[in-house]
Amino acid sequence: xxxxxxxxxxxxxxxxxxxxxxxxxxxxxxxxxxxxxxxxxxxxxxxxxxxxxxxxxxxxxxxxxxxxxxxxxxxxxxxxxxxxxxxxxxxx
Amino acid sequence: xxxxxxxxxxxxxxxxxxxxxxxxxxxxxxxxxxxxxxxxxxxxxxxxxxxxxxxxxxxxxxxxxxxxxxxxxxxxxxxxxxxxxxxxxxxxxxxxxxxxxxxxxxxxxxxxxxxxxxxxxxxxxxxxxxxxxxxxxxxxxxxx
Lengths: 92, 144
Fold this sequence. Notes:
Distance between the termini of chain A: 26 Å
Number of domains of chain A: 1
Distance between the termini of chain B: 93 Å
Helix content of chain A: 10-25%
Structural class of chain A: alpha+beta
Strand content of chain B: 15-25%
Largest sheet of chain A: 5 strands, mixed
Shape of chain A: globular
Oligomer: heterodimer
Order of helices and strands of chain B: HEEEEHEHH
Mean pLDDT of chain B: 71
Strand order of the largest sheet of chain B: 4-3-2-5
Strand order of the largest sheet of chain A: 2-6-5-4-3
Number of helices of chain A: 2
Strand content of chain A: 35-45%
Number of strands of chain A: 6
Structural class of chain B: alpha+beta
Order of helices and strands of chain A: EEHHEEEE
Mean pLDDT of chain A: 95
Number of helices of chain B: 4
Helix content of chain B: 40-55%
Low-confidence stretches of chain A: none
């Protein structure tokens, strides 16, 4: 069974701004916190023809907003290192 | 900025069609929950969780409500630290209606006066000052 090691999620200001402006009530912090602390987080690797090897994750914020997020590994050659850049997230 | 996977809104079920989750490994995590009382109104928040806010009229009810929210949402592997932020004002014996802060304010001069009356050093200082004052008064009147 494949596994996703999720140790740290980083986010650029541009991504945070994008999520806040385009996908309210989500914010990058709420997404990151949900991925870190929530139960029932579902994640798996996928290969996107455009964006490459990435993790798709489903979770719910503490306020009850379900979302899908895409994360890119900081170290693609060492995916088990667990550091990711949040690429985007949107409510589902 | 990439917009991977963003399209028209879909339902939770549609979004997860065909999605097979992998084993998710997350390390040790801890989360702080802060309980505070203001104007007899209790509120729980967390510096680690934006949007988490629970209110109640007593600390007991607040903890029950906060635990219910977290039990429903929080990964059981996360260690929760609970902190009481800002003690509520509680009347103490003989100081009804005074807060702890006020009690210290009112009692400090009394304690100081008691120590002056009790303490040898303070008594001497008090006498010295008084004697100096007396001598000064007498001197100004031409009496030595």
